[in-house]
Amino acid sequence: MDTNTPPPSPHRDFPVVGMVGGGQLARMTHQAAIGLGQSLRVLAVKADEPAPLVTPDVVPGGPDLESLRALAVGCDAVTFDHEGVPQEHLRALVGDGVAVRPHPDALLHAQDKLVMRRRLSAMGLPVPAYAEVTTPSQVEDFAAEHGWPVVLKAARGGYDGRGVWFLRSPDSAEGAAAGAPVRDLVAELLAAGTPLLVEEAVEMFRELAAQVARSPFGQAAAWPVVETVQEGGQCVEVLAPAPGLSEERALEAQSIALRIAHELDVTGLLAVELFETAGGLVINELAMRPHNSGHWTIEGARTSQFEQHLRAVLDYPLGTTSMTAPVVVMANVLGAEKTPEMSVDERIHHLFARFPQVKVHMYGKGERPLRKVGHVNVLGADLTEARRTAVLAAHWLSTAEWEDGWSVHSGREVGDRT
Amino acid sequence: MDTNTPPPSPHRDFPVVGMVGGGQLARMTHQAAIGLGQSLRVLAVKADEPAPLVTPDVVPGGPDLESLRALAVGCDAVTFDHEGVPQEHLRALVGDGVAVRPHPDALLHAQDKLVMRRRLSAMGLPVPAYAEVTTPSQVEDFAAEHGWPVVLKAARGGYDGRGVWFLRSPDSAEGAAAGAPVRDLVAELLAAGTPLLVEEAVEMFRELAAQVARSPFGQAAAWPVVETVQEGGQCVEVLAPAPGLSEERALEAQSIALRIAHELDVTGLLAVELFETAGGLVINELAMRPHNSGHWTIEGARTSQFEQHLRAVLDYPLGTTSMTAPVVVMANVLGAEKTPEMSVDERIHHLFARFPQVKVHMYGKGERPLRKVGHVNVLGADLTEARRTAVLAAHWLSTAEWEDGWSVHSGREVGDRT
């Protein structure tokens, strides 16, 4: 957009960041932008998405080139709430002179798992054994070499466990096509044009995430490494810092993330999802945007991932990443199987009555089963206590039920006779 | 509004709070509303005020009854960014069934210093000697009894040192009418219809502020008492907690604030500005809204004044008020005498390069001399260090000058030869 005259910013002298997508990540980025004197501009399909509900600067549309170009006019940087943006459009924006951050060359590694695996392998980083799948028999060939179970993945477009199939044997495929023989499942996916790869199923103790930010200037900053607790392929809890992680392994995880950020020339945030195994760390996925594993930083770190992402894409010096409490636990609020009759407003009332210290982040979304509609952060000194509080709080907000049987009327545990 | 059908909230099931005024207090309240799943609705005269720059839900207008009614449609509560709203309009809203918080009966004490002084006196609380002024000679009569100097105040409409005249003798009046004899100044103000009171000039060590929140249910919560540092009648720094304040006196200040909140039936926030004198605490002013003395709470307390204000006016249970660090210092960023040539964006860059830990809150306002355009918060363990950092940072953002002579190019103090 160098050759166009941008419209004057309504925020005198303050930069404008445009974000592709109007979900909760954009919503919370706008919240951080306010402190920096800014107002986030978002490209959103619908007016009632989480971000357009709270920011006035909304460009309607999806990730088509025309909408992306409308978003970019007058922006100091364009960045992402999600990775689902075609590479050719991003390259057209770069050709227009737009500061696309991260650059499409970097973002490709968060969009395409096969490209990512190849690159990280070439860098000598620890990744699972993997192979591209282009014919129905290749999964079985791979398993013959590496053993069952294996994990089949769509190279592009998956998130929160979608696009991932855990395969125990040639005859049973869990997931989207449960019960179907593996060869049929693969044939069906290939026929639908889904690019596929297969990986060994890594035996692990737990999952970790290392999050860093990097600016175009090359400055980088790392938050403490966290443990992410998954259910059904979806993150439900984050424990910061990862409990019991040796300093050596924490440094290794941060070094891996910093090295990837540097070698791929990532600008903005990078989250590296890791498996902790008997043999050490293994890299699972990359994300180049604010990430669920960093939601704890809003109150839990001196600089939140959302503020840091803005600082990074604007090439501001980065903020301090130290923690604000010895222990921080994040728990996602997921839509319940059956939406409670009690309104979410009333649920928040009751939550605050029981736990005045819990920090609530609701996204303004309608509730659907397992949909991420908010999260809670709990700061403390004791992990067991913080975790118990966070899980109780998130479950209450989801279901209007206290998992421990606490009664709102007595203020006591059910069955407590003292 | 009980008889009207409100429009559906764009935030499903989340409450809507309307705020009269679109300044920085509304801006930061919106920022807090986002976490609670809400979006603040603001009544703002101009589209480029601090709050309308960042919230989509803007009702254009000032505090006239028609605009106030437009704001109130569909609101669960209506509250205030400033006190400049006529009582008769607020009473009309109450008559419409709007939840006006605080109620006009309470707010009156923050709008009218004479009403406030009479009420607090009647409660037996410590206030300066004072008298209403309705004829030009009454100031001298008051001084004859209590001694010079005295402080003349407009009973309504003053803020940030405006509407306050410090009078040393019958012949010299500082402030707006410097040099004019007192009797002429008083006659002029009375002729202009300004309601006046005169007070003894309290000899004090320093100024303190006690901030509390109270909900319609009657729950109240107090933050630690802070010291406010004033220049030219305007707050420039806040030190939390007030250094060297005895626990006894801190409790006394909190008790005063809690008692006022209770007896006046305040809902939302109450800030009590206090003088610390040889004889104990003396009450200066009241504010019933988020207040400059509470800006430190954004990062400095587990619940910020902005979140707490929303919780209080919505009758949510209140949040934990404990501090996030042993020491928190807030410094206001004031417009410089001469706006620097370096843009504010560039100033923020340089600030972050020197102080990555400073939290910046800019309001998106144009810079004019002494206008509050932002603030910084610094958390730490050592007051001297935190204060030095906050003051350097705020002065830099105002003027693009480092008061300590630090040089951006060397990264060292000027004259530092090591």
Sum this structure up briefly.
With 418 residues, the first copy, chain A, is of the alpha+beta class. The first copy, chain A, has twelve helices and 18 strands. The first copy, chain A, has three domains: 84 residues, Rossmann fold (3-Layer(aba) Sandwich); 72 residues, Dna Ligase, domain 1 (2-Layer Sandwich), CATH 3.30.1490; 194 residues, 2-Layer Sandwich (D-amino Acid Aminotransferase, Chain A, domain 1).
Give me the secondary-structure topology.
The structure is a homodimer of 418-residue chains.
Chain A: E1 17-20, H1 24-35, E2 41-44, E3 58-60, H2 65-72, E4 77-80, H3 87-96, H4 104-111, H5 113-122, E5 130-133, H6 138-146, E6 150-154, E7 164-169, E8 172-173, H7 182-191, E9 196-200, E10 206-214, E11 220-222, E12 226-231, E13 234-240, H8 247-263, E14 268-277, E15 280-287, H9 297-300, H10 305-313, E16 327-334, H11 344-354, E17 359-362, E18 372-380, H12 383-399
Parallel strand pairs in A: 1-2, 1-4, 2-3
Antiparallel strand pairs in A: 5-9, 6-7, 6-9, 7-8, 10-11, 10-12, 10-14, 12-13, 13-16, 14-15, 16-18, 17-18
Helix pairs in contact in A: 1-10, 2-3, 4-5, 11-12
